[in-house]
Each structure stands twice: as C-alpha cells, then as structure tokens.
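Quick one, tokens below:
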C-alpha cells in the first residue's frame, strides 16, 4: 500500500477541539460543517467514549458492536482472512467509508485509541473533497463514471447497488467506498479504479494516535484506512446520526463541477 507523506502532528492539531471546553459541542458541529473532521483527546475509557458519542450522535448499532453500540477494534486472530473483516485483523486496511453496503450509511464515525500498537497501525485519512478534485483534474470521465448509478455493489448478498460519488440536487457531493472482497464493480467502472486509488493515495494524511486520542468524521465525506501493525492495538468506534444539523456531503471545488460535463477522455 502506497501512502502520501504528511505531517501527522499538523493534521491532528489543525482539526483539534478540546471536548472539555465550554460549548465544545457547538465548536465540533461547526467544524464538521466546515471540514468534516474533528480530532479529540481525553478518551481513555469506554465510558469516556460513550459519554462523548452520546452527546454528539444517536448511536446506531453495528453487526460487531456491543449492546452499548460501541465496537472494539482489535486483531482478533480469527477474522483477518474473511472478506469484510480486515478491520479485525492486523494487516493494511484500504481506504473506505463505514457501512457502505447499506442504503443509508451512518453519518458520523467516532474512533478513539485505547492502546496504540508498538509498531504500525497509523491512521490514513483522505478528504473526499480532495479525492474528487484530484479525480476530476486527472480524468473527469473517471469522476463522471463513478457517479453513475449502480456502478458498484458493496456488501454480501444483502448488500447495496450504488455508486462511489453521489451528486445531490443542491450540487453537493457525498462519497461511499469499500475496496475489499465485498466490493464488485460494473465493467464501465472497473478500468478507472487505478485512477480512483491514486487520487485517494495522493489525498491521504497520516495520524499516529496515542492513547486517549481520536477523531470524529463525516462518514459521507472522509475515507479512512490503516497501516499494518503488530501487538495488541485497541480502539473503540461509534457510528451514528448527528444531534445537530449537518448538510449532506461537501461542496465540490468550483472548477470540479458539474459532474455531468465530460471535458475530455483519458487513458487509464
């Protein structure tokens, strides 16, 4: 897996909100509306995580979550080679959005590190706005193709026929993606996958999470991935719907819209 170089300290500090500050919830909501990403700290226990998640979202269950809605992310030693379970292994985890195989993926994801890995396990984040812009700049036809309905099928037999890029009536765009064995592609989209993966890699920023640190992202905008690791790395994840207003997706860069216009053809 090739990764774009970035300063992990700058990314974390540039999106940081002190969750203990007065009106922290308002600050978090405003930053999510602006950039779709907030970094946090002070989440050292399951209760810390649950308290913050409950303030910000209506937690939605996941097939792997506990009764409180939180999911422990670690190498279980038994899931790594099963399609769709790479997150419960220790290998590289490709860029994706959460619950891409359901009709309406949860809007928010909160992830916190309880125990970092002694080696590896860095988080790789890519803003869908940057990915979209790079894709349009390198090959507008690829961006148009990935916006065509039913060009992807994400999930198992009960998955969802969809597309990577969804353009909404107000001009905003949302993203969904998975790249594992539970992703299937239309013949018209398949040739452009290298373009998409290159745009993601070139947009990625690296964060090395320490114990208690985490991030909250707009799951319809940001893609997240992970490098391989060793040791007993443990994180907690919450998914849910925001308790505050959050416009769908993101506004594309002005020169990157509209998707319906193919400026040129390109080689893949």
């Amino acid at each position: 897996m090739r990764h774009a170089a970035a300063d992990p300290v700058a990314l974390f500090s540039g999106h940081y909100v002190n969750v203990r500050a007065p009106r922290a919830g308002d600050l978090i909501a405003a930053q999510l509306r602006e950039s779709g990403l907030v970094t946090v700290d002070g989440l050292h226990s399951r209760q810390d995580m649950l308290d913050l998640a409950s303030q910000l979202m209506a937690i939605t269950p996941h097939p792997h979550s506990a009764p409180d809605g939180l999911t422990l992310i670690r190498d279980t030693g038994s899931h790594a080679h099963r399609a769709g379970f790479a997150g419960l292994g220790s290998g590289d985890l490709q860029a994706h959005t959460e619950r891409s195989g359901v009709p309406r993926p949860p809007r928010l994801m909160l992830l916190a590190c309880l125990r970092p890995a002694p080696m590896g396990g860095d988080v790789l984040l890519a803003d869908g706005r940057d990915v979209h812009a790079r894709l349009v700049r390198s090959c507008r036809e690829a961006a148009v193709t990935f916006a065509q309905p039913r060009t992807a099928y994400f999930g198992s037999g009960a998955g969802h026929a969809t597309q990577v890029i969804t353009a909404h009536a107000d001009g905003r765009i949302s993203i969904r993606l998975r790249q594992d064995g539970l992703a299937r592609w239309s013949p018209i989209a398949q040739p452009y996958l290298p373009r998409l993966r290159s745009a993601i890699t070139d947009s990625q920023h690296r964060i090395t999470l320490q114990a208690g640190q985490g991030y909250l992202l707009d799951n319809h905008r940001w893609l997240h991935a992970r490098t391989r690791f060793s040791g007993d790395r443990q994180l907690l994840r919450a998914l849910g719907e925001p308790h505050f207003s959050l416009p769908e997706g993101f506004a594309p860069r002005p020169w990157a819209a509209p998707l319906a216009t193919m400026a040129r053809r390109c080689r893949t």
